[in-house]
Amino acid sequence: MIHLHVGLGKCGSSSIQHFATQQAEALRAAGLVYPLLGKGGAAHHMELGIVARQARPRRRAASVPVAMAALRDAMQVPDGTSYLLSSESFLKHDAARSRRNAEALRDFLGTAPVRVLIYFREYPAWVESIYAQKTKRGENILDMDGFIAHRCRPETVSVVEGVKPWLEIFGAENIRLRSLHRDDLVGGDLILDLLAAMDIRTPMAPFKRVNESPPWTFLELARQIAAGLPAGDAAEEEEALAERGREATTRQWMQRLAVRCGLALEAAGLEPARVQYMSRADWCALRDLYNRDVDALNALLPGHVIPSSTTPEPPERGSAPSWRDVPEEIGEAYLGVLAKPALLRAMPASFAAAVRSVLKTARRRARRAAA
Asked: Measuring CA to CA, which residue among 292, 298, 288, 364 is closest to residue 331?
């Protein structure tokens, strides 16, 4: 049996992949293999995703077909062993792309029995998680209201059309579709639900979740830094890097700052209070879309009822949070990290310039407040 976890992204995929990687030996002892082949050094099977996309990989072009052939051969050994393959690059919201991926993977896996595992989450929480992911990587400069208006149309949020091709190609009886709603998970836990889906009864060691969203205070700092980064031709000239390399550099530095700023808050004994990111109207619209989709998916998958959202509606909210709303003591802790000369010298030129712009603005605000 091949267990094929196909996404979605920001729906526990990193937790599944890191759990399977860290517990590989325990899982193997229980009869399940999480193959190294096809992972390309990451926790998920991104090279298998390349096969699904039918595109040439950016790296290791010659090694991917060899690794994929070896992986396919290994999974055809009739020894009773089960396999888990995982990549959030498989399931897409767009029906045509999702169908192409499902067909490519069905062809790749041949006649092997496959159980497809799909996890999604309540749309308001999912959109906030996507906002956090893109902002902490320096890829988003919009506030939450702008992010929803420009990037969260119903067709880019709803999972129904993307799920349908998997039902058709692999058979509804071979699809295990779960919401991250606690009432829909075995034991109210993603990993316990995953183990139950793979028929593993062996107790596993405790596992720390990964890729969690940083505090909103850092997200708003990251958004201000990203807004100061050069774009287009200016960025390429200044950095003398290909677009992909520039993005990777930005992402690496955002992640490094996230760690350093988190340590700064910890050292200062500060804990940022939660904020309401989404307006009540946007939250309710996404919740209603989620509940309509749950009804549609339940009709497609008789025998299992995905629960509707029971999360309480948020109160009314004014404008979306921004760096201006970060409490002064937290802002000082973050800015103390950013202003370190050694850190600034180590940054790429355009990134350091953006950070200096944030520092300059913060100092100007501080002077105004003091006056």
From this structure: 364
